[in-house]
Write a structure and sequence with these properties.
The chain contains 16 helices and 17 strands. It has 419 residues and is of the alpha/beta class. The two termini are 52 Å apart.
Length: 419
């Protein structure tokens, strides 16, 4: 069963807000056997909304719309949909009572604009929004279904998980089973990886696809099976993933699509180890990613953002002479930062970063994108210099990701050595 997603809002078109809704929706739809055929974004214009709606309804049986359901004048989605489906809005006492109850519980005061959210289409099923005031509406026509949901991410997610996906699965027969299996690969360039997997790819069944998804030092390999037989899709992808693991061996850091920070956390927790950070160019981003994982307090001790050399000296014990002779972006300094973090934070392992994130600050010897990363622990320290890009955001992101990969390699090498 194919689906199209329409996200609505001028803020999406001008880049003021990133469209995370369609990404999340596509994943949950795919997990439940629905294939997303197309995504569209349109502004707060009634004609554009009606045109996009007509085109989508003419192509697929399921259209999911988010955005434009608020109480302000630019929220015109329902009016546009009413025009398209030749219906009108009416005041729903039931919806109003729900809104009034939510406002009362939150300590807000009702006003005329809020009252307008109780105006709903006559030719649509109104679905209660359990976490917000804007109602969800379910339109049906001879060819299928269109669902209009709020653009607020947590409201949309609640509706999708609790109402929309269950209703879609009940209404539409599942004609294809989709099974994805993803593994994460590191330590091998994409071109070299593709060459190694030539025979593997050439022998894939016709209903299976292999995708390469590069991501800052990691390549995600995704196997996707599309079959009318659920067991066939499940068994085939399981077998193929085992074959990938046999071919790539040490290059695979995770057999499933887990983020690097999750993999690092699981390794630390399983061994009863702790970690801390000493960051300069990343400004605490490594620590932020590690602590984004639920339960990270089991293994994360803390971090020092030593952006200034004074902090490197006074907090982490970095030699003033080495800072003067080698500069902050150097092997001696980053290694001392990592060792200092071990002492200050009392952890088993420490990750340190120091670099020129950009866009300014580079020199011929240390151009923008030059980064030193060190990992210390168990009486050892390793460090490496990288040359990334000239874009600040990319440099920070890559440094964070590579730092965690170095941490994983370091822990594995120590453990394999007899820890």
């Amino acid at each position: 069963m194919t689906v199209e997603i329409i996200t609505i809002g001028d803020e999406l078109l001008i880049g003021q807000v990133v469209d995370t809704n369609s990404v999340w929706m596509a994943k949950i739809l795919n997990d439940n056997g629905f294939q997303v055929a197309r995504k569209m974004t349109v502004g707060d214009d009634a004609d554009d909304i009606k045109k996009a709606t007509g085109e989508a309804c003419g192509r697929v049986p399921v259209v999911l719309v988010t955005g434009g359901l608020g109480p302000t004048k630019d929220d015109i989605t329902l009016k546009a949909l009413c025009e398209y489906f030749d219906t009108s809005l009416y005041f729903s006492e039931e919806v109003y009572a729900h809104i009034e109850r939510m406002f009362r519980e939150r300590g807000y005061t009702m006003n005329e604009l809020t009252r307008n959210q109780a105006m709903v289409p006559e030719k649509a099923t109104v679905i209660r929004n359990g976490v917000g005031t804007a109602p969800c509406t379910w339109f049906e026509w001879s060819g299928g279904v269109l669902v209009s949901m709020p653009g607020v991410p947590y409201e949309m997610k609640w509706l999708m998980e609790n109402e929309i996906v269950p209703r879609l699965k009940k209404k539409f027969h599942r004609d294809v089973y989709i099974r994805h299996r993803t593994c994460r690969v590191t330590g091998i360039p994409e071109a070299a990886l593709a060459l190694r997997l030539t025979d593997f790819e050439n022998n894939l069944p016709s209903f299976v696809k292999l995708a390469y998804l590069p991501q800052s030092g990691i390549i995600r390999l995704r196997l996707s099976a599309y079959s009318d037989d659920e067991k066939k899709a499940e068994d085939t992808t399981a077998l193929l993933r085992k074959q990938l693991e046999e071919i790539l061996k040490e290059h695979i850091i995770a057999g499933e699509d887990e983020e690097t920070e999750v993999i690092a956390g699981e390794k630390l927790r399983s061994k009863g180890l702790t970690v801390g950070t000493a960051e300069s160019c990343t400004g605490g981003a490594v620590a932020a990613l590690l602590t984004s994982v639920p339960g990270s307090s089991d293994y994360f001790r803390g971090g020092v953002v030593s952006y200034a050399n004074k902090v490197k000296r006074n907090v982490l014990g970095v030699s003033a002479a080495d800072l003067e002779q080698y500069g902050a972006v150097s092997r001696p300094v980053v290694e001392q930062m990592a060792k200092g973090a071990l002492q200050v934070l009392g952890c088993d392992y420490a990750v340190a970063t120091s670099g020129v994130a950009g866009p300014g600050g580079g020199t011929p010897e240390k151009p923008v994108g030059t980064v030193w990363i060190a990992v210390a622990g168990k009486g050892r320290v390793v460090s490496k210099m990288y040359r990334f890009t000239t874009v600040r955001e990319q440099n920070i992101r890559r440094t964070v990701n590579v730092s965690l990969l170095m941490l994983l390699d370091f822990i594995s090498s120590v453990h394999d050595g007899g820890e």
